[in-house]
Amino acid sequence: QVQFVESGGGLAQPGESLRLSCVASGFTTGKYVMSWFRQRPGKERELVAFIINVSGKTRYADSVKDRFQISSDNETHTSLQMNGLKPEDTAVYYCGARHSSYNYEPAHWGQGTQVTVSS
Asked: Cα–Cα 20 to 30 A to 107, which of 24, 32, 35, 64?
């Protein structure tokens, strides 16, 4: 059964950094596309970043490019390093997974972790 747990969310001030972690249990992520999505207040869920583990290819939303970095150990850990946080990054962040070498739309979701950026 595909399960994972997210952690690392919390409160940060503008300009600060947070690191989100997604730990898989019951499977290894080597043949998965792992992704991070977020849902901002009053908005639909949107893609933040994904990594195709078989190739290492990554893609980022324009709003986070050059500030966020996704990484994976191809085993159980997928991380999202978030630097230069802005108030508009406030959202619930979700880890997603799909057994694929190209399709980043998640077939499985984590429970989400809240990130709040405020001074």
From this structure: 64
